[in-house]
Amino acid sequence: MSKLFVRPYQFKDREAVLRIGADTAFFGAPIEAYMEDRNVFLEAFYAYYTDIEPEHAWVACADETVVGFLTGCVDSHIHDRRYVRFILPGLVSKALRGKYRFGRRSIGYLSGLLGGWLRGEFTHADLETYPAHLHINVDSNWRGHGLGQRLMDAYLQQLRKLGVKGVYLDTTSLNEAACRLYEKIGFRILDARPDRFWAKWFGYPVENRCYGLRLI
What we know:
Elements: E1 4-8, H1 14-23, H2 38-45, H3 47-52, E2 58-62, E3 65-73, H4 76-96, H5 104-118, E4 132-138, H6 147-162, E5 166-172, H7 176-185, E6 188-194, H8 196-202, E7 207-214
Parallel strand pairs: 4-5
Antiparallel strand pairs: 1-2, 2-3, 3-4, 5-7, 6-7
């Protein structure tokens, strides 16, 4: 029986965190379902948390193997400014120099995101009330062991000690088990909007959801 525990993220965990992030990005399946090059996704969505704000990240371990993680940010306004300054220039530079592979899947996904933004399908949170945010992923082989709950508990305790007022996260109605976990912890839906892109992909209605939790 493996010893399961949660601890703060360390830089040595970076490779495992990024691998799990890419391997679970498509609703628990690998990112390659809709992007040819996982490096684009990882550098766009996770490099900030592993490299710039690692002090608010946690990992779930089975013995000494990282099998899940939670990355967080305590102030989303600061995140946005740092992202534009430190992450975005590298992404643009690499894209212009042909360092990423963009194929039909990637183009379709990116155009779907743009269409969703233009149609107003993205959800929003009041950052004055809910300044922090998070992303959480657990390896598919280790779900059902309570690791998601333990990761959330560790991060929320950290936020409360820091005096953070509230935290939000973005997900979709497709992540049914995750939504049940958030609601069990006390998160409530702040915003919900129909998503045409994933609805077209899966063939049934899908909602983009923003969940929030007041901490103080």
